[in-house]
Amino acid sequence: MGGKWETAVFDMKGSRMARILVVDDDQIFYSPFVSYLADQGHEIHIAEKLSTGFTMAHENDYDIIFLDVVLPDANGLQSISDFKKCKSSPEIIVVTGKGESSGAEVALKSGAWDYLEKPPAYSDIKLIVNRVVQYRENKLQIKAHELLCRDSIVGKNETLRGCLELIAMAAKSDEGVLITGETGTGKELVAKAIHINSKRAKRDFITVDCTNIPVNLVENLLFGHVKGVFTGADKDAEGLIKQADGGTLFLDEIADLPISAQKSLLGTLQSKKFRALGAKEETHCDFRVISATNSDLNKMQAEGLFRRDLYYRLVTYHIHLPPLRDRLDDIKLLTSHYVSKICEEIGINIRGISNDFFNSLTQYEWPGNIRELINVLHTTITNATNEPMLYPHHLPLDIRIHLRKKSLNNQPLQGKVMVLANEEIQTAHLAPLKAFKHATESKYLDTLIEISGGDADKMFRIADVSRSGLYKLLEKHGKRLKR
Prior knowledge:
48% of the residues lie in helices and 12% in strands. It is of the alpha/beta class. The chain has a 5-stranded parallel beta sheet, with helices on both faces. A 5-stranded parallel beta sheet has the order 7-10-13-6-14.
């Protein structure tokens, strides 16, 4: 029966249909479940093992995968992200006989559309499937018309592609967008991409850096003032919100906006009206707000540092940008793009890039993300002067030192001891052989203890010496093992 079900394909009925894979080994559940979905006009395939499901998902373009958790050959929760990597990027709906809050959290954080407990109500299933179909139709429309202009956002990484889809959807709307991510991930570039792809593209994009606004000047900067309202106000001044009329207001590092100003901003977002300092009447203003932060606004709400009602006004779309260390597959594209751009800006011939250079960049962790990469490339191109090709030795000294230390720490014992010996030769200035051997033995033992974690049995096996012989060496050099 299992083999028959695994190859079953049901006739398509109706106009709103989806191609669905059910990965479940519980025939008592999936037989009526599959029949119901087929009666709704959907094309259904079934796999009773996770491995079979993977094969089918890579061979077919599914819209939806209903995934069980407990399967004969694996845990379904651990495989959600792998299914999402299939060419059709299907939506995953977990259906489990043992619903747990922890399982739901894992599923949703891994990208699942929903997490349901068996047996789900068929009316709920119908609603969910219809919503998924509509969602995917909208995504296809966005891709088909190639609406997104994103020259400044470089990369093909899978996570970035998900962000681009959200950017395209947000650009079609006029609702609030919150962009989160570490410093240097390109939050302002994303905000500008949403603006230039929106109906407001021909109007101004106004940036408010919330980090650098003195508390006593926030409302003046945002709302402006009328002449004579305070000493030095010799004329009317337009605030940044008014400057964004018809366009987009970008609130960078919104988490740093003082709590007093958050209330005033909330009122303006709700009514689209504001009152300049000293003005008798309110002014109407039509603007779209996009905000960004590298802080955890949910945590700040719990601590009373950020207004919950303002948060909900700001977030209809939430776009979280991945750090560069999670999209190293984009390093080559990013590097080529920015090297060409930097060379053009400073008026020199475009540099070639060696494979060793690319490899070095992928070994670095990039704590400063894309912003750090751009700065490193600026320095590298300067270091290369008139040389036509970029090599690792052109990288900034601190990066080269970091990569060398990382390489040494990852070397196997034999290679590491050879390096230590070479360092000793360079610093000993050909000291007496006895002194050199003593120093080298001591460094060998330090390295041996480090890589074995001080485990005596591991040390004997690695050093390939007798237990008594190794203990004599340890005693000779004053080394002690953890008991």
